[in-house]
Structure formats: structure tokens, C-alpha cells
Amino acid sequence: MFQGPSLVLSPSLLRSRVMITCLVRYVIDPHKLEAFEDYARLWLPIVDRMGGTHHGYFLPAEGANNIAVALFSFPSLAAYEDYRIRMRSDPECVAVFERDKRVRSIMSYERTFMRPVLP
User: Are the beta carbons of 96 and 42 closer than 8 angstroms?
Assistant: First the structure.
């Protein structure tokens, strides 16, 4: 089963009801870019199905050939945390994680949480 890096979040963010956007920065194997793109396409509808809004994956085009980024949002950090709990037992999520464990297109990743500044 997938166990991602543990999160250390500020108490003010935990109490917040503000939309939260997760930026995931991946270090990928550039020789397995097609496999990573398949992984990305599988996640797009999953996040939406589980209450988030996926803004897409961004793959290398010029410059570094081993960095990819994903952006997705949830209405609140609490909604994101609920998603993280549910994904651990969701058969589709588990299948995608297990697939990449075999393929190994992802070398490492890190998550950063952001909040919007709106007009």
C-alpha cells in the first residue's frame, strides 16, 4: 500500500477553511516519460472523483528532462486530508500506485501546499 511522505502543516493552515492547492514536484526517470504520462492520465479523473479539482500535470518540454509538476485543489485542507485517508483503500488509487511501483517512473516527489490570493 502507498505510504507517502509525512506532512508537517502549520496549525493555522490546519484550521483554515480556505481552498488549498497542492503542487507536487516529481523527479522522474526521463527514459520512462511515457510511463509517467500514463500514470498522470490515470490520476486526473481520480482526484476529480474524490472531491478535488485537478489542474493538470506538466511534463518536461525544454530544460530539465526529469522534472514534472502536478497541481490540484481541494475546498479545504480538511477535504484534502479526507481524500488522503480514502485513497489508501480506494481500489483504483491502490492500482495506480502499485503500477508505478513496478514501472518506477517516479524517482522521488515533494508536495507543497499553497493558498490562493484572489481579487
Answer: yes
Say how far apart CA 36 and CA 51 lie, in whole Å. 23
In tens, the pLDDT along 13-61 reads: 444 567 999 999 999 999 999 999 999 999 999 999 999 999 999 999 9
Show Cβ contacts of residue 10 under 8 Å, excluding neighbours closer than 6 positions.
none
Q: Enumerate domains of the chain plus CATH numbers.
A: 17-113 (3.30.70.100)
The closest alpha carbon to 28, from 84, 112, 104, 94, belongs to 104
Cell numbers 485542507 correspond to: 77
The SS3 of residue 89 is coil
The whole-model pTM stands at 0.81
